[in-house]
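job 3f2a | input accepted
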Amino acid sequence: MFLFVVFLVAVLLVAVSQARPTEQERVRLWHEKNTWPPTWHEESQGYRKLMENREREIMDLTGGDERWENWMQYIQSRLVPAFTDVGFKVIQTPSHVHAKLKAAVDAAVAKWDDLPYEHGVSDSIYAFDSPKFVHIHELAWETIRELLPLHEEWAGGIKLRPTSAYGVRLYQNGSTIVMHNDKPQTHVISSIIHIAHQYDDNNQPWPIHIEDHDGNLHAVSLEEGQMLFYESAKCLHGRMRVLKGKFYGSLFVHYQPVDKNVWGYTVEDVIAAVPPHWGEGIKEEHGSRWAGQAITTDSRVVDNAPPRTSNNKPPSNQYEVEEDYADAEDEL
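job 3f2a | predicted structure (332 res):
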């Protein structure tokens, strides 16, 4: 049995390597289909300016691994289409849905020391302690099925297929989340269903930072019983400031369009669209602020991130945020 598994893994690895071209071949194919700057979709002046500035920042990164991952996130943001005018919206979670989720989380938090830690997320979450995790089993899929019509309506009436109901993740004190886009295959139309939190000070909430389709960065603070619709594969998002409190708990639900003519994007499409000049001026293999699949430029750096040590620039945690979404439900 063991030899069969080894053989199967070897076959799969060969298949993947055969499917993905070498960098030289990828560049040749890129020139057949693309020009730079890209013209995949109509973009507002504000969004185009944001992307032009981001490209300059990315090209200042000196580590090959970090530069590549930043290019992947950058390309995905521009490659995939938008479905809504803004890219996100806050609504009240249906009361009966919130009640069931809140009961499950409250029961779990009451036995805090018995809760398991979530592993495998250290690249994207900076924290003193890994998140705790609440397994809600069938309730997660019951929720994603029940909320399907709301997501379809928000996305313009397209038919969606549920792909993932993940959580409940309980972030712990001191946590930040790198700015990123979600998986292009499956995490297209999504929502963060905020269930419960315990802040040190209720006047210091833990906002989600998200970019809209016009290039603006917003800080959105959710109340318990609210949910955030967002175009998770297109809109860069994360949590740039530290959580000050015991925990912050949400359920993540994701959907993809049923019609492949509406959405058929994969990681391979993103890879193929990275322009040939992405690697010019690379000076080191890794990069001092590499964080996996994320944007790690100075204008989008999150608290707790490692300092920038290799590009002869001082570390920077400066960014601009539009703070006018404190009461986002009324604004959108």
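job 3f2a | The radius of gyration is 20 Å.
job 3f2a | closed
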